[in-house]
Amino acid sequence: MADLRSLFKAYDIRGLVPEQLDDEIARAIGYGFGRFVGGRRLVVGRDMRPSGEGLAAAFIEGARAAGSDVVVLGLVSTDLLYFASGHLDAPGAMFTASHNPAAYNGIKLCGPGASPVGQDTGLAEVRRVAEAVLEGREQLGPPRGTVEEADLLEAYAAHVRSFVDLGALAPLSVVADTANGMGGLVVPRVFAGLPFRLRVLYPELDGTFPNHPADPIQPENLRDLQAAVVADGADVGLAFDGDADRVFLVDERAEPVSGSLTTALVARAVLAKHPGATVLHNVICSRVVPETILACGGRPVRTRVGHSFIKQVMAETGAVFGGEHSGHYYFKDNYRADSGLIAALLVLEELSKAGQPLSALLAPLRRTWTSGEVNTEVADPQAVVEAVAEHYGAMGAAVDRLDGVTVDLGDWWFNVRPSNTEPLLRLNLESSVVDEGPKRLEEVLGVVRGLAKGQEQP
């Protein structure tokens, strides 16, 4: 019996190649997705991972067997795939494992107009059909759909540039570390014709990631960018992940800028263009984010972590922008999809207008201590989350369960939640008393580890 549960996550498909994902499975998933979208035309793209070409080709075979015509985009970033889905009003499939190591690959699916496809909005149905194919309960006939190729890179680049006032941009010096990922293709094209002096680190597309992992949330993967910013005397550094839908910033002093602070900065830029609008932030974001949104006259709304959840809440609330601590930034006028490049250009527009260094622009926002994401392997992540909620609830702390468990203890708070993509427990903590932050982190880690150990006892 085929069991794809370990491959299908909350909002995408991701696993080791070929142990969990191979051409046969990709073909079955393509058939399942073609069936799910009713055989309508769909777009397919892939990142630079060596396994992507074969997996995408097999997926296309399956989708065509389900009656879907396929528009092949070739090598693209994930946000370009979402743009294509919106621009052509077609469902889409992007082959990528984002920031995961080279041995992984996966598929991000979306509906027409880049609408979310997650566990509760289609992934479960795609999995059910794919398992039926793999078990021999359903047979794939010959391909019925057609195949065509399309190049939307220039249209995408113009779309990204449309989010800023080009006349307001100053001749800033920018370093972008694309980490051998898809940023090497899309970043230079978006920046073409803009007044910035751009230097790109590791622009060669190489899914083996020969220089460093394409995971900019990890501080060690920012070192080359930090050194280049200092050496060039650059105004800002941009670090992209493998499929180039996420971005992290480094200021002119080579200090990393958290996803929360970037969210606050982009929210300010967006609210200047859309006064009084609703802006989303996930449960992990710093309290600085909703405080900034309110100070700019906006309406903050807190959401679960993950793109399919955020896109759904954007549709429900009419939010113009949503930000995540993990470097994902969503825009209503981008089909509610995320784009690190749109966020980066909005920051550069803010920096151009401010006429001061990025560190000075961010200084008022850097008023808390945050732990960053601390990951712990435990036997049963959900059981530990329940134990944490019970432990701190019994202490009288404010506890909410929007996503994992968030515990509010006044001048400090933390969130513990199971990863949606990996077998990990994720902890994030923030303290408004900066000097007490590290002590609070060790305290909570001690409690979590103790409760995890207790869960393992017979």
Automatic annotation (TrEMBL):
It holds the Pfam family PGM_PMM_II. It comes from the Bacteria. Keywords: Isomerase, Magnesium, Metal-binding, Phosphoprotein. Residues 6-121, 154-253, 262-363 form the Alpha-D-phosphohexomutase alpha/beta/alpha domain. InterPro entries: A-D-PHexomutase_a/b/a-I, A-D-PHexomutase_a/b/a-I/II/III, A-D-PHexomutase_a/b/a-II, A-D-PHexomutase_a/b/a-III, A-D-PHexomutase_C, A-D-PHexomutase_C_sf, Alpha-D-phosphohexomutase_SF. Residues 373-432 form the Alpha-D-phosphohexomutase C-terminal domain. Its cofactor is Mg(2+). Gene3D superfamilies: Alpha-D-Glucose-1,6-Bisphosphate, subunit A, domain 3, Alpha-D-phosphohexomutase, C-terminal domain. Belongs to the phosphohexose mutase family. This is Phosphomannomutase/phosphoglucomutase. It comes from Aciditerrimonas ferrireducens. The lineage of its organism: Bacteria, Bacillati, Actinomycetota, Acidimicrobiia, Acidimicrobiales. The gene is manB.
